[in-house]
Amino acid sequence: MADININTVNKYFGDVHVIKDVSLDIKSQSFTVLVGPSGCGKSTMLRMIAGLEDINSGTISIDGQVVNDLPPKQRNIAMVFQSYALYPHMTVFDNMAFGLKLEKRSKDEINERVNEAARILQIEDYLQRKPKQLSGGQRQRVAIGRAITRKPKVFLFDEPLSNLDAALRVQMRVELAKLHNELEATMIYVTHDQTEAMTLADDIVVLDTGIVSQKGSPLELYDKPNNMFVGGFIGSPKMNFISSKILSKSSDATEVDIMGMSKISVSKMSASSSEGDSVTLGIRPEHLVVNGDSDGSWESKVFVVEKLGDVTYLYLEKDGEPLVAETEGHSEIKVGDTVKVGFPAGRCQLFDSSGQAFK
Amino acid sequence: MNKVYDKIFKYSLQMIVIIFCVFPFYYSVMTSLEGSSAVFEPNFFPTEINPKNYNYLLFEHNFPQTILNSLFVATVTVSISITISYFAAWSLSRVNFKGRSMFLFVILAISMFPQIAVLTGMYQLFLNFKDFYFNIFDLRVKGVTSLLWLCFTYTMFNIPFTVWVLTTFMKGVPKEIEEAAIVDGASSFLILRKIFLPIMTPAIFTTAIMAMIAVWNEFLFALTFTATNSDRTITVGIALINGTIEYEVPWGSIMAASVIVTVPLVIITLLLQGRIMSGLTAGSIKG
Ligand SMILES: Nc1ncnc2c1ncn2[C@@H]1O[C@H](COP(=O)(O)OP(=O)(O)OP(=O)(O)O)[C@@H](O)[C@H]1O
Ligand SMILES: [Mg+2]
User: Which of A91, A117, B98, B250 has the highest Cβ tally under 10 A?
Assistant: First the structure.
């Protein structure tokens, strides 16, 4: 059992307020993924949980015990650093065995655990090499290996797969998911990779310049973003945002216009909005209906066509409003064609002028 | 065409530098091998090979004693200063405390202090030290007092330098390596022993050699604080070599002595060359 409770934590680097009143409850044995743009404070969050960075106010507790003043080694955690931080003078084996030796494990146990980790990470052939004789991806796997041999209650991963090639990344992703089930540990994982976040996470936490923008299951964030930031951050390619106006409000829906061409009634409400307010309509490329019937529609010329095989992305623009639409892989649409895109009302999000979502 | 000129230019420059640096040493080796009269005839190649200067120094003079004295002083000084500076460097580069940069600045300032400025004060202290030493331990082993005092003053003058250099090196070791060890459960002392020491070994050797050379070549204190022939260090020893007659400068013996004292330094440097500054943290971190 290792719940992690973070309670109104603040962190300053000098005058810079990096983490702002963050509160998070992370359930024992859950897999939580931290995402956010570069510099938003993800690494800092992990380092605070690890105990490598003091916090200025608030509390962090692991397993019900406040750990603010506990050194890292009493927190029962392991961390994979963004920059690997391998011990340059030790072999791969010794790098992975270092923590175990400090725990005074028996030789057999150390051998067994290191070899097991090496097998999972496919680095058995390099056990006797020094870090400088390894490629970036191999080093990264050693860094993961160093964490998993110790089998702690909490794992902190800082972009652990960022240097691996696509195939290995998928494989490691699956291994990490398996490991998570086997070890029954709480894992907190930072990544920039959408697929990793969506597939691995029980919960995704979106950080925006030191503030928790939203926390929820991957599909919750995908379907019901709290605000434009989360809507735009989750999903690739990005959600389309179109400026729009409220035409009328009813008891359970808001009617908005689409470029003055058509109007749709979205069954979402915001108490603070009123007729005539500017709003932003958000819809994902994959939900737009190209050349088909839908609730509202929009016509524009196609400027760029990207064929990815399984899907095709159409880049459209009308009066300065860009729009990306997804259609089938073998689409006949060419640059310069005019297409009609339909907006299914059930897939549309509305955001008020401060970026908050209509519920 | 241009390439050829480039090469000629490059090599001739290198030749000039090498000749400029090595010629004095070559000339002293040559002179040391010549007999007393041949010394005064300028020539590029020795006209005779005569080991008499070496024989004189090693077997008839107390020169071996001065070498032992210097070795003793250098070893003690370098080991003490490196040990102290290693720990100091850790705290100055890793532990956050108020006034840290001020402290480093003061250290740098101290290492620029000229020896001559403290010489008289040091001499007075030396006399007190001698009294104290003689009274407390009742040891009247001549020489040891002076040598101990030399060790003390050299350590004092060396530490600012070694601390400064080692701190700079230790700052260059990425913080994450240490943090990884902390997360792995290592204590500060263990990190210093098992993580920093191996990583810093090349830097430590480099610093130790520089400190050693400084001690080996020191003259002013060595002259001031030693009174008898048995407690001379090599620099003073060489300066005090006298000729067979009063008005003769014994160039041959002096050159032989210079060669003898240079050889250990050259050997140490060659032996440790491979270790000096070879990639401190290669492969440890990204990029
Ligand atoms: N030691 C430090 N001193 C001062 N500022 C710092 C320090 N460490 C981090 N910061 C600042 O804190 C902010 C958050 O940094 P952090 O490393 O947590 O970002 P991140 O979300 O991990 O980014 P990335 O995705 O690029 O790794 C950044 O703006 C950074 O400049
Ligand atoms: Mg980071």
Answer: A117
